[in-house]
Every structure is written in structure tokens, then in C-alpha cells.
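Propose amino acids for all 388 sites.
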């Protein structure tokens, strides 16, 4: 006796219904490897963010960062009078940008290493590994959670940067490049620190390695430049301005004056080794987005740093002019640290793209290392913990 009541359909018809129309599309989307990988990354991202949100230190750190940034903004506005005509904009722009970059050097290695270390310590990493998630999904999931926390810190920093822009401290392109460089340094150091955390056995080792990368990018370039600069010294014939009556010259009859002689002098060639400074984060920021000094009362540390680096990149003349006369006037207004005019410094090609490329390579290498070296803790009992 055939029973064709509700819910009793031939097996062939049921199979055709499940594999046709919306059912077939649902199976195709669900079975997509790319979508499955994205879902794995999203799972790790959400779990790590929830774990970080439950920690009191996360909110204390966010409040401390906001108090530091806005306190520095108030100090800069108070010291400059709060008007754009006295250079307040350039000062606010430089101080806030430098503060954000310093925060990246201090906090990004900690945030990058903290996610994996916390996952090991709470057993979350072992639990996720048991579910069959690949090392790539784990690595990118933890990294996405770190980037989310970094984005929150950058959002806190953005209004003070807007204040510097509103006061005339930089133009629109300078504001955009400031945000790009600062964010790139945060992201790069976090990625490098995560790679170190995946390779290190303990949390202390991961933090030490992460801060080692930050120190290598910040301190090593100036040290290498300083140590290599004496090796570029050379003897040249220069036009030297000396006091009349010295160095075998005739003494002037009237008041003391300066005279020019040709003599051998030793000079260094920083233009041959300037590229050692290219990956330094503060040099990248100053070269990409210096402030706009308004009037003689304006002061902008980023512009001063950019002028110094660009002056070092210029090729010196074959017969340099050296001033040794104490009566000679100082460099003309608008000249750079080495006597170069502002127009000459503006014509130098920016070097910040090369510096960002070096930082990007460091961050990419860190994520690749985390993907290769990421391993779950040893066999963990249910509810057990693994001490990192």
C-alpha cells in the first residue's frame, strides 16, 4: 500500500529538491574554501576580541592613551596661544603625530604579542586547533583582532590630528599621509611582534623579540649612519672664509673683516649613506608629512628633521664653501641645516615610499613567520590551561 501522506516523498524526489534551486546555491556557498577560511578567521577574531574586552587592562590602557593624547593637545594649544598665526597648528601637528608614532613603537609590539600569548595562557589556542582550523586561519584571526584594537587607538588619535589641520599645521595631503604612515607603523610592528610570539616559547620572549624589532627600526638606523659617516670622509680643496690676518692673510687696516682663501679641508659625504636612515619611522613621518611653519615664530620639529635628512641627501659641490670667520653672518633665513635653500630641499625626491616598503616587508615577514611556526600547545585536558 502506497503512503503518500505529508512528509512521505519518494527518496529520489527528496534528493532532487535538496540539490536544486536555493538548496544547490546554499551548498555551493557553504562549501566555498575561501568563505570557509573567512569564517574561521572571523571566529578567531571574535573570540580573541571578547577575551580582550573582559580584561580590565584593555580599558585602562585605552583610557590612559586617550588622556595622554588629549593632554598633549591641551599642552600644545596652551603653549602656543591657540591661534594659527603663532605656529600653533604646526606644533600641534608635530607633537600629536610624534606621540602617535611613539605609541606605535611602545604599544604595537605588546598588542601583537599579547593575542597569541593570551591564547596560549587561557587554552583558547589549543581549543581552536582541535577544531581543525589551519595555522593561516589562526594567524590571520589573531592579527585581525589586534588590528581592531589598533583601529580603536587610532580613532582616539584622529581628532587631535584634525585640530592641527584646522589650525593650519598641515594641508590635506599632509594629514592623509600622516595617518597612512602612523597606521603603517602600528600594523607593521604588530605583525612582526605576532611572528615573534609564534616563534617564542614564552610571553616574555615574545615581548622581548617584538620590542627588539621596534628598537632595530628606530635606533639602529641613526647608529649605523653615525658609525658609517666617518668612513665617507675625503680631502677636498675648499673656499674657506677666514678672519683677515690669520692663515697667512694680510691684516685689514680698518675694522676686522673676513677674507676667502683656498685650503685643504676634510669633509664627509652623507649623501652616500643617507639610505641607512630610510626605514627609521620618524624619518618616514617627517619626510611624508611635515608641518607648515607659519612665520618666524612657528616651530615644527618634523620640518626640521625633514630638512636635515634632505640636506644630507644633496650632493655637495666639488669645491665647497666653508665659513670659519667668526664675523660671518649666520645662514640666510629659509636655509636648511647645511645651508641649502628651501627650494633645493623641496626638489629632493621623497624617500618615504622606500621606508614604508621596508616596514611592509618586516610586517609581512612577521605574519608569514606566525603562519609557519604557529603550533597549538601540547595535549590539553578539557578546561585545562597552558602556561606560556
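Proposal:
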Amino acid at each position: 500500500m502506497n503512503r503518500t501522506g505529508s512528509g512521505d516523498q519518494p527518496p529520489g524526489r527528496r534528493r532532487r529538491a535538496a540539490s536544486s534551486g536555493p538548496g544547490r546555491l546554499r551548498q555551493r556557498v557553504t562549501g566555498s574554501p575561501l568563505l570557509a577560511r573567512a569564517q574561521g578567521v572571523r571566529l578567531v577574531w571574535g573570540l580573541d576580541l571578547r577575551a580582550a574586552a573582559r580584561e580590565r587592562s584593555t580599558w585602562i590602557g585605552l583610557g590612559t592613551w586617550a588622556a595622554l593624547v588629549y593632554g598633549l593637545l591641551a599642552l600644545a594649544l596652551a603653549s602656543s596661544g591657540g591661534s594659527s598665526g603663532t605656529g600653533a597648528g604646526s606644533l600641534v601637528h608635530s607633537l600629536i603625530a610624534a606621540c602617535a608614532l611613539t605609541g606605535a613603537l611602545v604599544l604595537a609590539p605588546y598588542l601583537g604579542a599579547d593575542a597569541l600569548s593570551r591564547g596560549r595562557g587561557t587554552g583558547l589556542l589549543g581549543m581552536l586547533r582541535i577544531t581543525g582550523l589551519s595555522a593561516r586561519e589562526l594567524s590571520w584571526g589573531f592579527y585581525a583582532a589586534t588590528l581592531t584594537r589598533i583601529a580603536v587607538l587610532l580613532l582616539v588619535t584622529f581628532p587631535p590630528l584634525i585640530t592641527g589641520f584646522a589650525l593650519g599645521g598641515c594641508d590635506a595631503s599632509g594629514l592623509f599621509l600622516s595617518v597612512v604612515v602612523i597606521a603603517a607603523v602600528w600594523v607593521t610592528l604588530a605583525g612582526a611582534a605576532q611572528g615573534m610570539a609564534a616563534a617564542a616559547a614564552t610571553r616574555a620572549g615574545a615581548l622581548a623579540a617584538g620590542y627588539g624589532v621596534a628598537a632595530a627600526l628606530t635606533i639602529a638606523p641613526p647608529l649605523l649612519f653615525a658609525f658609517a659617516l666617518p668612513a665617507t670622509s675625503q680631502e677636498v680643496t675648499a673656499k674657506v672664509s677666514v678672519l683677515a690676518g690669520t692663515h697667512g692673510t694680510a691684516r685689514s687696516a680698518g675694522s676686522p673683516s673676513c677674507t676667502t682663501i683656498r685650503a685643504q679641508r676634510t669633509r664627509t659625504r652623507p649623501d652616500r649613506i643617507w639610505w641607512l636612515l630610510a626605514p627609521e619611522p620618524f624619518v618616514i613621518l617627517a619626510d611624508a608629512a611635515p608641518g607648515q611653519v607659519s612665520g618666524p615664530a612657528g616651530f615644527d620639529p618634523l620640518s626640521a628633521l625633514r630638512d636635515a635628512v634632505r640636506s644630507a641627501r644633496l650632493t655637495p659641490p666639488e669645491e665647497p664653501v666653508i665659513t670659519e670667520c667668526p664675523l660671518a653672518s649666520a645662514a640666510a633665513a629659509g636655509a636648511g641645516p647645511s645651508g641649502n635653500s628651501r627650494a633645493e630641499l623641496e626638489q629632493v625626491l621623497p624617500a618615504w615610499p622606500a621606508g614604508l616598503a621596508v616596514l611592509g616587508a618586516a610586517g609581512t615577514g612577521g605574519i608569514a613567520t606566525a603562519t609557519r611556526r604557529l603550533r597549538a600547545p601540547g595535549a590539553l585536558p578539557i578546561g585545562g590551561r597552558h602556561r606560556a
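Confidence is low (pLDDT under 50) at residues 1-7, 11-29, 330-337, 376-388. Residues 105 and 214 are 6 Å apart (CA to CA).
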